[in-house]
Amino acid sequence: MSNNILEIKDLKVHYPVRGGFFNTIKDYVKAVDGVSINVPVGTTYGLVGESGSGKTTTGKAVMGLNHVTEGTIMFNGHELTGKGKKVDNHKDIQMIFQDPYSSLNVRKRVFDIITEPLNNYESLTKAERVNRVLELLKIVGLPPSAIYKYPHEFSGGQRQRIGVARAIALRPKLIIADEPVSALDVSVQAQVLNFMQEIQKEMDLTMLFIAHDLGVVRHMCSYLGIMYRGRLVEEGTVDDIFNNPQHLYTKRLVAAIPDIDVDHVEKNLVLRNQLKEEYEQNFADYLDEEGRAFPLQQISDTHRVALPVRS
Amino acid sequence: MSTENNNLYDNINVGDLPKSTPGWKIVVQEILADKLALFSLIIFTLITCYVFGLTLFLSLRDIVTVDLFAINVAPNDEWRLGTDYGGRDIFGQLIIGTRNSLAIGILVTLLSVGFGIVYGVICGYFGGHIDNAMMRFVDFMIILPFLMIVVVFVTIVPSYDIFTFSLMMAVFLWMGTARLIRSLALQERELDYINASRTMGSSHFKIIFTQLLPNLVGIIIVNGTLSLAANIGIEAGLSFIGFGFPEDYPSLGTLMAYAQNTQTLQHRPWVWMPAAILILILMLCVRNVGEALRRAGDARQRQG
Hints:
The structure holds 2 protein chains of 2 kinds. Chain A is of the alpha/beta class.
């Protein structure tokens, strides 16, 4: 498919575990173990999974912040991985970080933070830079008076907006949002998410949205990938995943979403408990000998599931 | 965006936007708020200005010339602080000695802390094999016997001046700073703002010196001032045991060395006492100012 802006093929990120007298490699931690994702232009792809399932590692591998053990990452037809082949992808791919407190340098004013990418890729005069920063502050809904303030003078939600302003400063094509709202409280979450959707429409952005909150993902994404222990267990449109989950892991995950339907509380509880029992009894069947998901099988045009291979 | 909101962003005079208090102003506020630090800074500045100013009018040759008719004179109108066993003016020696000691202390601190910072920050930022190799070199430098090498240096080098002597000291005094800064840089580089800078295409060099280093300024200042006090002390100590500057090149240490003579120690306090008090005052002043600077760098501890 040519309209995919990002194609990840069989990505593996392994970390060696060293030990023993000679500090030799004893084993590998397989943080990401064979993940393939295609993200079409202008859509939001949600990557969901429990902590330690390799979502963030996948995102960082795309950014070039991790080493890649195996596999290829293609961005707009250019390969990002591989030796000796250095494509400077930072202008077109940007990242929004999880923690708005550590991702902004406390010693820098908002102006310096937002102009950092501009200084690296565009030569602008001081006045032009000020105008660009004001423009960006307007987009993210911060007052112009914020420009010469330090990050500690802002709340968590406002800081995350500064992070977003920095990420969109170069008008990137792809944004990797690494749990952008998990550090924020719920009322601010909605604000940040809504305005991220707004900018996405305005700037025709593609987003790889990493999250563990299914409600947030449903709100934001058009495609979803569910990760478990470094592999995808199920992938499809939001509709596929939420209304027709096939993998037991996904089923239980979807059933765990809190329901505000008061009339059916009892019924939901029974269903949930049934799933829990089934999960505890049969989940091992859904994994291979190493406790990992099986390869994905296509079950419809958009829906792929790691169903057990009956041999 | 509503039109009302749009007006907020139009017609902005950039100069009118509020600015946060600049760094130097915070430092000034902090020192003004801490009376002890203010007092210390005034004393230190006065001593430094007086000493450096007066040395312009004093002749080292006149002061260190032996005058057999004025041996061990107690302080009087002609000799304000008396003379030593060679009839040399203690006051003149004290002034020039203070200048030499301060110059060495400051120079050694600048050289050793400066090099230590760059070395440590490179180790900590890159980590891995680079860190491993560079830190083994630090370990090697630490096990070298500082005192012995200084003694050999002083013995074999025919003549040395303030700069070469400082350089020699700095070669053995940068490791502590390097280790400290490395450990902090290791911590700091794990924070997301470093990753963020990488994703925005900044070079390693730029990240180290414009992103990482400003976050270590507080520690660097504390380390620098404490080193300054310590280095004045180390120089005085070396001169005291006779391996610093010779007698005809006075420093606070050479004046203190006169106290090795029990007669001088007991009956002629004017020879060594002023130098001892001056060392004490200088070190305390530097430390007090350093404390205030440290608080200025840490918003949570500010008093001003």
